[in-house]
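Re: the pair you flagged

First of the two:
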Amino acid sequence: MKIDILFQPGKDFRTSADRILGAETCGFDAAWSAEWLSNPFFPLTIAATAAQRPFTLGTIAAYAFPRSPMITAQITWDLARQSGGRFALGLDADTPEFLPIGDGRHRPDTVSKMREYIESLRAIWRSFQYDERLRFRGRHYQFRLMAPFFNPGPIKDPDIPIFLSGDDSDIYDLAGELCQGLHANLLHSRSYLRDVVLPQLSRGLESSGRSRETFELAIPALVLTPDVLEAGFASQNDVASYAFVRRNHSFAAFHGWEELLDSQRERALSGDKRALWHSLPEDILHEIAIVAEPERAAAAIRQRYSGLADRICLVFADWNPELIAAIVADLKTPPLGDNTDQA
């Protein structure tokens, strides 16, 4: 199991890049940049030139539909080149509510549009790599021209991994069929992963004739220490609060928590963060987050995600370098009596 970290780029991209490099030094296997407060690609351009070891740099839940596949293809090609083939593209199949959806009256067919988005990305990348004539014709996207002047040319590692995220069981199926990985939603439970996500992934993998070993399920693990819960959150845009901002229809319906999560979402949008967490029933809080003292966090993460995750992506409410380093060190150390490599 690989140990990754999720971070939210701030307004200072140099600071964000330094945090990525610090995560590399701590022994993480990857750093994933989220598209919430700032553009997720920019800090990676700084870190890509400095990171040395086999350390993945990627986006998580970068909005797909507001960007043309051509724009995304050019950005990711540059990052793949600059990082020496260590870049992974994480796309969000959902559209944020503050951005236009379709023509403003009808929602697009998300699954078929996401399928075309991925297929057109790969067609554009093939044109970059092999100077192949670009002829992609779909219902949602059409690309018919790649002028030599705009073609960046081949790179050493052209096979850019694509991870999907979204709140739709059909998206999990699509990820299994077309992608190299899936980022599970921030709000999830072990039972939801086991009973909804994994079966859908298996169907997608089976339809494309691929084995489970070719695919990575990356699960965000929201780590909340009792001290953090008691004191509240220092950052106005903390990751822990964002977990409730986006709608989680599938997950909420699975547990029968629609009314509760809608209420929490309203609190998150209003900035009432202390009420957000203190109003949650304790059993639900422990279902969706790792609530443990720092020295017990690694054991709690192992217990919850053993047999489910290929990658664990640690998510912290506040950026505490000492706490982060201690937890990843514990996760990289096999438990007593276990001679296998846990990472």
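Second of the two:
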Amino acid sequence: MHTIDNDYFDSEEFRDILSSYEAAAASGEEGFMDAEDLIDVADYYRMNGDDAKAHEVAETAHENNPAATLPNIFLAREALFDGDVELAKEYVASMEESDSIEYAFIQAEVLIAQELDDEADVLLRSAFRAAEPDQYEDFVMDAANMYLDYGMNEKAHEWMMRSKGNDSREFRELMARTLFGLGKYKDCERLFNELIDQDPYSVAYWNSLASAQFMLDDFSGAVTSSEYAMAIDPEDTESIINKANALYRLSNYEEAINYYERYMRLVPNDAFCLMHEGACYVNLERYDDALGVLQRAADAASGDSEMLIMVYQEIGFCYGSMGRVEEALATFDKLLKLDCDKTEVNVMRGHVLLQNERIREAEEEFRSAMSHADYSPSVILRIMVSLYDNKYVEASYNMFKHFFSVLSDFKDGYSYMALCCWDMGHKEEFLMYLRLAVERNPREARLVLGHLFPEGMAAKEYYDYMYKRMKA
């Protein structure tokens, strides 16, 4: 399998190849270059986001030698990621080396693209058994990399476990990525810290550490790691957006806006970034600024239904906070044209109506949502949270009380019930629900109740801290 260490792209050897290619391309003589060198150049362009140029180089390599392995693999993978399995098959059929490891891998990818995962697994295990002993470790890593590319984290980990003991930096980096995909963020964090000890100037390692910390709700740690990455490369877009998102989760909205703006100076009109910047303005109650940014997000997200759904939600809630109820409702209605669940729309409409004291209409929307969802606990939970957010604390408390009497094993919502008890001065009940919140859903506890505790305190420490404080 043709893989390139990113360090290779910084080497003098590759820089000479790239210079030779660009000089040859300028003179129209790139066709005389070696196919493997051309695919290295294509990989370089693809890594740097220039997919059109990467395709052009790979096509040149393929035209020079239609049966060569590497150009066919590059173009077949490109076709697979574009969803064109038949074109990928044509490229694979053109390869002359049908008994190579590279051929086995691209065949496996074609099978995975057709959802024939078991067949792909059989093929790869057969190729692995036939490989030479000195190929085992590379085979393991290539297989894991391939499965990671397709989001098949369990299979990637399964292949990593076939290693006979690889302590290389590349192997540990791949293991860290695999653990991240499996949601084992603490182990992932530990590995990236070890890798940083070996290479403290790796922007990629600092960014990966920041991502793991973010998933662990260690937003302060994510900010710090992103800052180290930016100190190495001030224009690294990943570290800038990582810091912006972590600041957002820390409710440091003014500073988050600064970093979202900094990111968009490098990556203009990013819908995800614009949406989050708009949400910052909403949280700062700067609604006119929010609408302007969110409308830009909607324009940038045109054609991306999933992103548009999220943006229209933010726009609708923004209108609701401004008291522009009819515009909010009209915005939510647009969601129905984007294949958004009608139940979701009912809850959103109900929230804005309740926010603007149109209580009877809100009740109708909430009843409709519960009916459409067959009284799903998650939908009822969202309605109870809406009641709390709109300062109907006692109504929210009473609904939660009944809710938990029926669904005693439900793991979500205890943090909101604790918050209701806190606001109502029910100290003993607050401690009871705080304990349940921390035990059953510490992530929710941190997000919902974190403002009641010292910054940086772990959710598992909340109960003891508050018990001592309230009993003192």
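The mean pLDDT is 92.

-B.
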